Amino acid sequence: MQERLSACNEQGIEFQSESLFQNFLIAPFLRLPLIMLYSLFTILYTPAEEDKSPIAPPKPPSWAVWYISNSAGMAISPAPSRIAALRSKNCLALAIVDVESLPSTLTPYYRSSLKIDFRMLFENGKPIREQWVFRDEKSNGLVVAVAVIQPSVAPAVAFVECYNENGFIEEERLFDDKETQIKYFYKGRILARTETHIWEKIEKPREDAALESEPAAVETESETLEAEAADESLEAETEAPLEPEFETVETTVYTDYYRYSVSDSLRAVERVFQKGKPEAGRFVVAFPSMKLRQEIDSNFVKTASTNRSGFLAGAEASNALYTVDGRGRVLSETQRDESGGILVETKNTWAGGRISVVEQRLFEKPQDADAEESPEIDEDKPEKRGKVVEERRVEYEYNSDGDRVLEKNYNNGALERTVRKSGNQEIEEIYLDGKIVLRAVWEGNRKIKEERVK
Which of 23-27, 35-39, 92-96, 241-245 has the lowest mean pLDDT? Predict the structure, then answer.
């Protein structure tokens, strides 16, 4: 080795060779303390950076029960384990949770007598939706809320629905770029009106803008020059623009009134604005035309009919002629087209203060109805009637209290339908060739049973 070092010294590289030799022998003993010192220095003196990692998605409780599901969140079949459930396209985690796990938006709806049913829906192994259902002792869902889960975004409640003991919705809240609250009011079991409140985020006015709008005090020329110089220096120092501030303000309030016929069918909706109203502060939408977005069209509202049953027909009539008795009861209604041709003729038969029979005849359009005539109807001219194409008849029966208990519908003399009321239930029967073929049971305007009759 000495000979080798001597040879290296003669070539002028002894120092380098010795350095390499020493590093090779000593480095393993020095490397460990250096690494430890570097790690300690990094932990103690490295400045903390902002946490730019994405928000971790929420997880269901550890005691959750897992189900195979569909995309709508229906629990189809139990899964043997969480891993097995997550292998399917959609799965569902179900659990009973306490009030501490609720979002702050849902806390005001909780009562000690309610049970919180929590569900989390997964798609391809990732959570996409959370749902909370507040149930009473009868397992009726009184409050339903849903939150949408998106990547790198904290879950936010999308909507909240509140129901009463009868299953009718009482309040609805929607959260998107604005917040909408709708309250429902009933008269018995019929919706009478709804009240809608809308809150939106509005940019707050800046204080410096308010100061600029104030009138300036009288200053001398020197003071003005000094103030301008100070403003220029201040603007040079603070060139970064100020971020706008927002506040939530109630911008729109309106009430919808629902109008019904004698047979409890919806006939019209009237919207009255109390705040934030447009140019026309009141809209009326008539049915059966289902076009709630066409309130501004002045030709949208059509003439209403006095039909007492959904079985009876209406027509696109331009005018209608009514006859009444001395008590103001409608005895007949004649609907006509623009040229005066009769389209539908309806006659009412009264028994006491109630309608017992409604007879209706439908006519085909008269052949000369297409001729150009004045829209005004001349009473001296004979009525233009086409051929009768259909005859309908509705018979009503009442109990001793005056409540309607039976309705029979005839089409061209043949019985087609009967509706019999018994307590809170209505039994509807459909006839074909004089025989019952279908029977349905309704309770509270909801169909609870349907069967075919052989």
Answer: 23-27
